[in-house]
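Batch job 17 of 40 flagged for manual review because the log was empty.
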Amino acid sequence: MRMELSAEGESIIVMQSLAIEQQVRQVLEALATPYELIPIDAEFADTALFCERYGFPTDHSVNTIIVGSKKEPRQYCACLVPATTRLDVNHGVRKLMGASRVSFASADDTIALTGMMIGGVTVFALPAELPIYIDAPIMGLDYVILGGGSRSLKIKVSPKALERLSNTHIVPSLSVRI
């Protein structure tokens, strides 16, 4: 079921999205690495729909997933995994976080933590203290496509740019093939 927003609510979301997109551009410019911004229809932000609609291969698409611990004090991390895999939350991520129980962050928690909606989350505008775990196979690709900070933008960039972000850790076996 899709919830309808008031005109004021939609305006706030658009303004927040534009601010995040601007922050993403600033981070990318500071990294001094080539990138391409791909404006898209927000209805096609989810990976499978995006790849089908815009003709990008799924094996170059990556998802940024926020994971949180279940117990207080709550802690979070961001995980970057190929779209053709499933994040190993209960084993790999739990161990990395040193938590007894973890789960995918809710849409509300993701927005509160990152300012970004599911389907647009990117590593290029996350809070500096948030650990970023990158599945090692991503680093072998010539380019990746990932969220651009809003559901209306994707980024095409070399995975080498990801290593230049602070608090980034390359992790073998962060995901399992589906």
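Reviewer: the log was empty due to a logging misconfiguration, but the result itself is present. The longest strand covers residues 62-69. Unflagging and moving on to job 18.
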